Amino acid sequence: MIVRISGEGQYELPDADAPRLNELDNRAVAAVERGDEAGFRELWDQMLGLVETDGTPLPDDELVGSAVILPPRDISLEEARDGFSGEGLIPD
Amino acid sequence: MSLAGRMSTVIKAKISKLLDRAEDPSETLEYGYQKQVELLQNVKKGIADVVTSKKRLQMQSQKLEQQVVKLDTQARQALSQGREDLARTALERKTLAQNELQSLDSQVAELGHQQEQLTANERKLRSKIDAFRTKKEVIKAQYSAAEAQVKISEAATGVGEEMADLGLAIQRAEEKTENMRARASAVEELEKAGTFDDLTQIGGGGDDLDRELAALTSGTQVEDELAKMKAELGPGAGEAPALAEGEAPVAESAGEEGR
Q1: pLDDT tens, residue by residue, B82-132
Q2: Which of A63, A83, A89 sits opposite B170 (nearest CB)?
C-alpha cells in the first residue's frame, strides 16, 4: 500500500498496517471534533511515526498514485476540522 | 470523513483538473511542457519568498540581540548609580526584546526547514517528470496501444499527484510567510515607537508605552534579574547616594516587597 505524507513524499507500507492507520485516523478525527488539540497532536504523531517506521520511502523516479494521502505534518486543528481549500499551483 | 480521506479528495480533485484537460491525460503531461515549466517556476518563486522572509527575520533578530546587550548594560549602569527605577525599565524592555527574539528565532528555524523541504520536493518532481518521459517511450514500445494507454495514464497520475501535492505545499508556505511578514512588520512598528530604544530617550515614565510594557513583561523575571544584578554589583548598589530634594527613596524597599 502506497502512503503519501503531504508535503514530504511517498512510502511503501505493508497492507497489514492499514487497520492500525485507520484506527488512528478515526481517533484523530474524534479528537478534532472534541477540539482536543493535545490528543490530536499525539495521535497525529503516532500516525506519521507508523508510516515512517514501517514504511520504505519510494524512489524519486517511481510513478505511482497513492492509496492513502495524509495531511501535512504541521496541520493545525482548524485545518483538520475545516479541510483544505484554495488554489495552489493547480487552480480549481 | 477521515483525515486521509479528506486529503485524498483534495489532491485527487487537483490531479483530475491537471490531467483531464486533454482527451488523453497522458498527453497533457507529454505535450504540456509549457505547463510543467510554469509549475516549476512557481515552485522557485515560492522558495524565493521563503528565503526573503527568512533573511528579513534574521536581520531583525540580529538587531534585537544588540538591543538586549545594550539594555542589560544600561540596567547595570543605572543600578550602580542608584537608579533602580531606570534599571527596572531597562530590564522590562530587555525582557520584551528577549521574548520577541525567541519567537523570531523559532520562526527563522521553521522557515529554514520549509525551504529545505520545498527544495527537496522540487527535486523530486523534476525526477518524476524525467522518469515519466522515459517510461512513456518504454511502455509504448512494449505494450499494445490499448494497454500502453492505461499504463501511461497510471504513470501520469503518479506525476500529477506529485505536482498537486507540491502545489499545496507552496500555497501553505506562502500563507505562512505572509503571516510572519505581518508579524515582522509589527515588531518593526514597536522598534519605531522606541520600545527598544536607548534609555536616555525615556521620558518621565508612566506613559502608555511604559504601562503596556509592564503588562507585557513578566514582573517576576525583572525583579529576579534586578536582585541578581544587585548581588553582583555588591552591597550598596541600588541605594540612591544623592537623592534630589523631594524625591522618594524608591530603591531598596521596592525590591524586597516584590518577594
Answers
A1: 888 888 988 989 998 899 899 889 999 999 998 999 999 999 988 988 888
A2: A89
User: Element (H or E) spanning B170, and its range?
Assistant: helix B145-192
Strand partners, A4: A10, A69
Kindly tell me the sign of the dihedral angle through the C-alpha atoms of B157, B161, B167, B171.
positive
**B169, A7: Cβ pair inside 8 Å?**
yes
Phi, psi of B164 (to 5 degrees): -60, -40
What residues contact B190, with CB distance under 8 A and at least 6 apart? B100, B196
Of A70, A86, A89, the CB nearest to B4: A70
B133 contacts chain A (CB < 8 A): no
Q: Tell me which chain B residues have a C-beta less than 8 angstroms from the C-beta of A89.
A: 39, 42-43, 163-164, 166-168, 170-171
pLDDT in tens, B158-192: 888 998 899 888 888 888 888 887 777 777 777 77
Please state the ipTM of this predicted complex.
0.86
Does B137 contact A at CB distance below 8 Å?
no
DSSP structural state of residue B24: S
Q: Is B240 helix (H, G, I), strand (E, B) or coil?
A: coil
* Cβ B92 vs Cβ B213: under 8 Å: yes
Nearest Cα residue in chain A from B164: A90
Q: How far apart are CA B101 and CA B116, in angstroms?
A: 23
Q: Which of B134, B64, B136, B143 is nearest to B99 (CA)?
A: B64
- How far is the alpha carbon of A90 from chain B, nearest alpha carbon, in Å? 6
Chain A residues whose beta carbon lies within 8 Å of the beta carbon of residue B163: 89-90
The three cell numbers of residue B171 are 500555497
The candidate with the shortest Cα–Cα distance to A88, out of B99, B11, B187, is B11
Inter-residue long-range contacts of A41-46, CB under 8 Å, 24+ positions, other chains counted: A44/A75
Q: C-alpha angle B78/B65/B71, rounded to 5°?
A: 10
